[in-house]
């Protein structure tokens, strides 16, 4: 892992060293994710090439297999995952899963939400980014 000291410039711009950009295969005007971890006071930069993104926050029962069933539902709805993170809220009682991705084809968010709720989700929020 490389570490470099850099400066926040005007308008909150962060200067990323050229060799970092090359290592990540990033060019001027490429889109990136900025992942903020408020608890650890850290920021991650991640490359992506999708343009029509959706974010979902899914709460669920924390039973073995629930996350796998929900992932299968996303697959069946042709949802391509770009980023995910999941955490137990209270072990065996509840968990949440945040996913960011894109639909291959026309999105059917209402049907997707209904199917997620049928397969272990307790709530689903879908946001078009």
From TrEMBL:
One of its GO terms (molecular function) is DNA binding. Residues 3-50 form the SpoVT-AbrB domain. It comes from the Archaea. Residues 55-129 form the ACT domain. InterPro entries: ACT_dom, SpoVT-AbrB_dom, SpoVT-AbrB_sf. This is SpoVT-AbrB domain-containing protein. It comes from Candidatus Bilamarchaeum dharawalense.
């Amino acid at each position: 892992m490389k570490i470099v000291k850099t400066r926040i410039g005007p308008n909150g711009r962060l200067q990323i060293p050229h060799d970092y950009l090359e290592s990540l295969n990033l060019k001027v005007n490429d889109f990136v994710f900025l992942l903020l971890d408020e608890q650890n006071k850290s920021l991650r930069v991640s490359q992506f090439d999708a343009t029509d993104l959706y974010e979902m926050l899914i709460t669920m029962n924390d039973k073995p297999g629930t996350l796998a069933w929900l992932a299968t539902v996303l697959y069946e709805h042709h949802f391509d995952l770009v980023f995910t993170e999941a955490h137990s809220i209270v072990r065996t009682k509840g968990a949440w899963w945040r996913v960011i991705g894109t639909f291959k084809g026309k999105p059917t968010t209402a049907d997707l939400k209904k199917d997620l709720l049928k397969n272990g989700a307790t709530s689903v929020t879908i946001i078009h980014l």
